[in-house]
């Protein structure tokens, strides 16, 4: 029977305790450069220090995925532990070219079979896919069955989010069709999601206040909820605003008591692009009640 490992990157924002408990998960850290210094996400600087520093910067931090050699070294380490199949789940190709490059430079890798898997998203929904893949692999499920389940769950993922302003997304080049908001970046709360085909960030609405913006994305989710015939797991996350996210979860759960929910905070790599005080509502077909 094959021994399957799961690889992901640090934008899944899994804790070290979670990773250790899964036994077969390995995390490739993404780096960011700020004020001329290179930091490793989840290692070199905590979220509080990052978000305290971010608004003081004249120039946004830059982010960089692991190098090809870093990834090959990680895969070698995994293969040396007896794993002969690897599912490598990473942030969407709609945001970065990392996953397409990864497919190219691993195609002749011979120490283990590697499947490069585009999550079509990042943060908590990607982490959810990792948890599912890990559990199935630990149960002895074969590679094809795991990938089929990941495909099923990935197809159910959706997200709406609101940022305090578009400055970081526009400056970092991560927003498609940003011209639609020209001249009003600081006066509105943009509603965004990812396109179904290319998984790029696009604006879908603009609201004057954060309170109304959160109501707007909940109204949009309500339509999805009404049209869905399976249980949903909802993930509420944000940047440098844990208390507000926890309060949101209480209110949200009272309106949707039959959904499971979790809360989280987004780290520096994604936070560089969406800025402080962002709110994210994402969902996926519930797996862990099956």
Approximate strand percentage: 15-25%
Order of helices and strands: EHEEEHEHEHEHHEHEEHEHEHE
Task: Report low-confidence residues grouped into runs of 5 or more.
Answer: none
| Oligomer kind | single chain
Task: Please tell me how large the radius of gyration is.
Answer: 19 Å
Distance from N terminus to C terminus (CA atoms, Å) equals 24 Å
Strand arrangement, largest sheet? 10-9-8-13-11-12
Shape summary: globular
Number of strands: 13
Name the CATH class of the largest domain.
Alpha Beta
Average of per-residue pLDDT values: 92
Helix content class: 25-40%
Per CATH, what is the topology of the largest domain?
Answer: Hypothetical Protein Tm841, Chain: A,domain 3
Largest sheet, in brief, is:
6 strands, mixed
Structural class: alpha/beta
Number of domains: 2
* Count of helix runs: 10
The second-level CATH architecture of the largest domain is: 2-Layer Sandwich
Protein model, in words:
37% of the residues lie in helices and 24% in strands. The chain is an alpha/beta fold and 290 residues long. The chain folds into two domains: 4-30 and 65-154, 3-Layer(aba) Sandwich (Rossmann fold); 158-285, 2-Layer Sandwich (Hypothetical Protein Tm841, Chain: A,domain 3). The protein has a six-stranded mixed sheet, sandwiched between helices. Strands 2-1-6-7 form a four-stranded parallel sheet, with helices on both faces. A three-stranded antiparallel sheet has the order 4-3-5, covered by helices on one side. The longest helix is centred in the C-terminal third of the chain and has 17 residues, at 210-226. This is DegV family protein. Keywords: Lipid-binding.
